[in-house]
Amino acid sequence: MNYQSTLVASYDPFAVDIPAGPSSLQISQYYRDILLETKSVEIKPIKDRDNPGTILYHSLYIHQIISQEAFSSRPYELKLLQSQLQYNYSDYIDAWYTIFLHQSEDFSHSWFINFDNKFKSPFPYWFLHWWEKHGPVDEILPVAILELIRHYTKKAKFSAVDLFFPKQLLFIARYKVPWILKWSYRVTKDVRIFARQFSIKWWDKFEVERIARYVYNDLPVEPVPQSISPSASVRSSLSVEGKSKAELREIATQLLRQASQMDDDEDNGSPSSSSCHPISVKPKSWYEDSQDPYDAYDLHSD
Fold this sequence. Notes:
The longest helix is centred in the C-terminal third of the chain and has 23 residues. With 302 residues, this protein is of the alpha+beta class. The radius of gyration is 34 Å and the shape is elongated. The protein folds into two domains: 216 residues, no CATH class; 31 residues, no CATH class. It has a five-stranded mixed sheet with strand order 1-2-5-6-7. A two-stranded antiparallel sheet has the order 3-4. The termini are far apart. The C terminus is likely disordered.
């Protein structure tokens, strides 16, 4: 009796007669062969170094997701595995769910899932249900990833088919963001219901900064245009960069003339200094702390 039967029997001693048929291992291998031989995924077991017979977790990289049209013009057409077992497209879809039924005796097994670097195939519509059940949710994603998804949603161009799928799925598939999947049994003692409960976890070692560079390289942030204020235009005209000595003297003369005009306005009680207007603070001159207004610049460079 396998561990699943033992678990059921521990809650219901009468449920010990398991129907005869292929073992769970044979069923799991059948569906795994479907995904492997169609080159849809790559699966690698990660074993315990101290106990090589124990599989700690599996890594699963998604290479492609075959649509019904790509599989066959006839959805129930049978194809042959190397084991001589047959399968159709319905079996292919089931394989995407059954592949995760592997479990350890202490229910510590997990799946490390990601899209392969060369993944570019479109998503069939049935994959939406798979994603809702096995894909990551916003609650586990770091704030930085959520910000990148929002940026991607605003800047990326989507096809008509893409609009049917969550932007989170499209982003994760494009930029290869991994996640961890686990499951265990949820047991309701009063009604004796056994159900698999899947949980999703974020991989803490993922380098968000590396993905961010790719995202902003593909979808750069457009600079925000800024209006030029009159004061900015004055500062631009009075720029000292690349000026000759004569030009710098002219700039200093203009600044002194402006300062003198401001003093005259204050002495005459101009409206700008009136109590009925907000008091403005006179900006500190760029040469105020210097005896010579030019000594902060290299006048000998042309």
